[in-house]
Amino acid sequence: MQFFVLAEYLFLVQVVYYMKISQESIERVASACNIVDVVSSYFPLKRAGVNFRALCPFHHEKSPSFYVNEVRQTFHCFGCGVGGGVFRFVMDYEHLDFPTAVRRLAERAGITLVEESSARDVTARSERARLLDLHHKAALWYHHQLLRSPVALEARSYLKQRGFSKEIVVAWRLGYAPRSWDAFKKWGIAEGFRASELVAAGLLLKRDSNETYDRFRDRLMFPIRNDYGEVIAFSGRILSANSQEGKYMNSPETLLFKKGNILFGMDKSKHALVQAGEAIVMEGQMDLISAFEHGCENVVAPQGTAFTLEQARLLRRFVERVILCFDSDNAGMTAVERSLPALFANGFQVRVALLPSGEDPDSIIQKQGIDSFQKFLSGAEDFFDYSIHRAQSEAGLALSPHRVALLAKQLAGYLMLLPDAVLRERTSEQVALRLGISSAALLSATSPVVLSSRENVEQETRILPKKISAGTELLCRLALVHRDVREWLSQQKSPIPHELDPELVLLEELLASNVVSSSQPIGALLPSFSLCLQHLIASWDLEKTVPDPLCAAQEVWSGFYVAYLKRKQSEVTQQLRQPGISPEQILSIQQKILDLQDSIRAVKLL
């Protein structure tokens, strides 16, 4: 029953969101967005009869079980059970809530939404829109400074030395923040933005005296975009080698920008990621842009930090393998180790590219060319092999028993993060063999290497519907398609559906829906249902007919009713076995059994 309580909770959350956008607008968006076109904009689909199919983006599989039905405007995966309409697909694929998915699809279709929002919601969306507009215009201003301003001569020279052409600068809209305390502030105020908005965007800093000044000064500016291509923050690189300030400065977290949720370059590289099936993870923007512009486009960077669970989940939508290509210094090696928990917990196959000492991806590409860099990538080792080889190299090939114990403890922690039991077992066997110990000894050495990462992922794993009985499916399917079936089932009050069978809480949800009686396409109806019901409906063949739908529904209902009465009869019969029962109680119980038996016969005769 806990499963259905949670489903009901998810349904109520959906309804809260659902009511903010008018039903008419939702129908218009659903009609305008062909689900085949929407899904194929993320990854390729192949026609399979009347359907389209692909490898499921929501779980690992080798044979395609993800199907899109253009007639019903639904998708369903027969492997993991996910399914729904165009809104559900965008919600799951982009990790969006319902209103945001509708708005994104409306923007795609050029539809103006009619929204029924509170003043607070309108204010929040207005604030976000203002911040997006500010970041867009700020990126253009910084870009203009770099291209045209005399004060950016040093920045232009630096880029030229690094091999960045004007075409690259324009393609990535790189910019320059002047060496001034208020140049940006003056521009922003002149553009009509309030100082408070510039502070909220993280582009101005405030002194104790409440005076404000430019955050970014004398820095090469990299616009940070979300995977939808909107500028939401900036990263500024210092130009002076003698500066006491940090090499990079990022925007602070704002309404738009959460550092741990964004991967730099994703807006440009996501199609290449899907095609390659593998992501090359780099430390910085310069490395990423250099690789991308030289043809190595399946690249991302985690904003100068180790991978977070959110970043790993974002990347997992596109690939299942990663190559960590960080700098060869100690900081790079630390970044590798700090990235592993989130990557392993999300099921990634992780390899590590070992670069020569003192080199980074950009320096290799500039000195030796992209082909040499690709050779380093092709030689990337599985993380566990890489760790053992590194330890052997540091120890002169002979690992002492103490060093083996330490290494086993470290690797065992990472092994326990692997979500797939078979993969965990086989990998453990290989690692144990390399270390010269048993698998049991290896796994018993487990250290607390951020095991909470795996627990967090498991807690947030998608809640999928369990398999339901054929009778429950038929009742729900007939109720969804036929008005007379809905009306008859709605009149059955004693017992109510979930008393007959817990699964029939799904039927109660369907009957309670206000939109179920409309003639809308199923794709427009789905968002009003709970997540589990959306998945189930998407898997049903709604075109499958029966000769007499109402009669068929009544027969199935009778079957549930008979089973319900028999359970009651069994419960009453158990009372006869109670010790110390009186003759009067025996007679009463026997009468109840006979009454239930009569009820069963009566139902069967209907």
Please tell me about this protein's structure.
The relative contact order is 0.08. With 606 residues, this protein is of the alpha+beta class. The chain is 54% helix and 10% strand.
- For the termini, the CA-CA separation is 30 Å
Q: Radius of gyration, rounded?
A: 30 Å
Principal-axis shape equals: globular
What helical percentage do the residues reach? 40-55%
Give the helix tally: 29
Q: What characterizes the major β-sheet?
A: 5 strands, antiparallel
pLDDT < 50 runs, ≥5 residues: 1-19, 447-464
Mean pLDDT, nearest integer? Answer: 82
How many distinct beta strands?
Answer: 16
Q: Could you tell me the strand content as a percent range?
A: 5-15%
Oligomer: single chain
- The largest beta-sheet arranges its strands as 1-2-3-4-5
Structural class call reads alpha+beta
In short:
This protein is α+β, with helices and mostly antiparallel strands. The chain is 54% helix and 10% strand.
Write the layout of secondary structure elements.
Blueprint: H1 2-18, H2 23-32, H3 35-40, E1 46-48, E2 51-54, E3 66-69, E4 74-77, E5 83-84, H4 86-94, H5 98-109, H6 119-148, H7 153-161, H8 166-171, E6 175-177, H9 183-190, H10 195-200, E7 204-206, E8 212-214, E9 219-225, E10 231-238, E11 248-250, H11 266-276, E12 278-281, H12 285-293, E13 299-300, H13 309-316, E14 321-324, H14 330-345, E15 349-352, H15 361-368, H16 370-378, E16 381-382, H17 383-395, H18 401-415, H19 421-435, H20 439-444, H21 452-459, H22 470-481, H23 483-490, H24 497-500, H25 505-512, H26 522-525, H27 531-539, H28 549-574, H29 583-605
Parallel strand pairs: 12-13, 12-14, 14-15
Antiparallel strand pairs: 1-2, 2-3, 3-4, 4-5, 6-9, 7-8, 9-10, 10-11, 15-16
Helix pairs in contact: 2-5, 4-5, 12-15, 13-14, 14-21, 15-16, 18-19, 22-23, 22-25, 22-28, 23-28, 28-29
